[in-house]
Amino acid sequence: MSEVQVEAEKRASEGARRAEAQVKHCYSTWSRRYYDEYYGEDAPHPPVHRDILRDLIAASGASSLLDAGCGPASFLRDATDLGADLYGFDLTPEMVDEARRVLEPAGVPGARLWEGSVLDPLAFRCPAEPGRRFGAAICVGVLPHIPADADDAVVAALADAVVPGGLVVAEARNQLFGMFTMNRYSHELVRDTLVDVESLRARVRPEEAEGLERALTRLEGMFRTDLPPVRGGHEDEPGYDEVLSRTHNPLLLADSFRRAGLVDVRTLYYHFHALPPMLEADAPRLFREASIAMEDPEDWRGLVMASAFLVAGRRP
User: Rounded to an integer, what distance in angstroms lies between the CA atom of residue 106 and that of residue 175?
Assistant: First the structure.
């Protein structure tokens, strides 16, 4: 490996550590509120993915379940009736403490919940049972916070964590939802993914440069780039939109599953929106009821009308 490659890898590693430290800080004060904000009665959307996950796990017949990035047992607390031994790890110590507190009454030993990063393949092994592999492994709410070049490694670690025939499920925010929202997500999708701005700037002739910049400014003006508002922190920590919080192309994440050797790969969409979200305030009851009525993980319209998705596969 050349010195240039070594230096590039070093910078990438340092960048990943900085991003992870920010994410850890972001979630450090969130452990007691997180479940209520995203799964409770007043959550912006009902947690429909919980039922999708439950159905997938039940159908798999898994006798053990690993939640990689379990948070405050966000899903595990609602999986205690599935008949599987529950395990989980999380990057943030406060989240692990809350998960242990919540799951203790259900008889889940504290040793089955540990601190770890999905960027570390060894974190997918329970310290108390390092030889164990699981009937199912899930990863929810985590992929947005990892660097793009780590996606394949995380999916591979999930696949390696399960027994042959085991289920693997990962959740992500839908990048292609930006084709429907008409807001800053749409602008970012067009500008950063569809349009190769740097290539255009490299090819532009001097007499065209002003026109190109004017076109890019007009492009931005076609979207409500002030929406949605940037989410800040609750205390002194950075907020969700102030740390690494990526979206994923569902077609490409499914390819990552296949590269990991997983089979029977399926993409399941959730959090449908009956109208672009900026229009919700004009008819809030109708918007919410119509959006909930659309929830069908197999509906192809989820490719652009659902804000999140799950990819599921099986280890052969």
Answer: 37
DSSP string computed for 161-223: HEEEEEEEEEEEEBGGGHHHH-BHHHHHIIIIIIS-HHHHHHH--GGGHHHHHHHHHHHHHTS
CA distance 93 to 112: 14
Listing from the earlier edge strand, what are the strands of the sheet with 113-115? 113-115, 85-90, 64-68, 134-139, 162-173, 306-314, 263-272
* DSSP 8-state secondary structure symbol assigned to residue 229: P
Answer yes or no: are the C-beta atoms of 70 and 99 closer than 8 Å.
Answer: yes
Express each pLDDT in 136-169 by its tens digit. 999 999 999 999 999 999 999 999 999 999 999 9
Instruction: Please answer whether residues 271 and 308 qualify as being in contact, where contact means their C-beta atoms are separated by less than 8 angstroms.
Output: yes
Backbone φ and ψ of 30, nearest 5°: -105, -5
Look up the CATH superfamily of 3-175+231-314.
Answer: Vaccinia Virus protein VP39 (3.40.50.150)
Residue 2: band (very low, low, confident or very high) from pLDDT cuts 50, 70, 90: low
Other CB atoms within a 10 A radius of the CB of residue 215 amount to: 12
**Beta-bridge partner residues of 172:** 309
- pLDDT of amino acid 6: 41
Domain map (residue ranges) of the chain: 3-175+231-314, 184-221
Closest CA to 180 of 305, 1, 87: 305
pLDDT confidence of residue 3: 54
Residues whose CB falls within 8 Å of the CB of residue 209, separated by 6 or more in sequence, listed in order: 201
pTM of the model: 0.92
For the chain, report the end-to-end CA distance as a whole number of angstroms: 34
Beta-bridged to residue 67, according to DSSP, are 88, 138
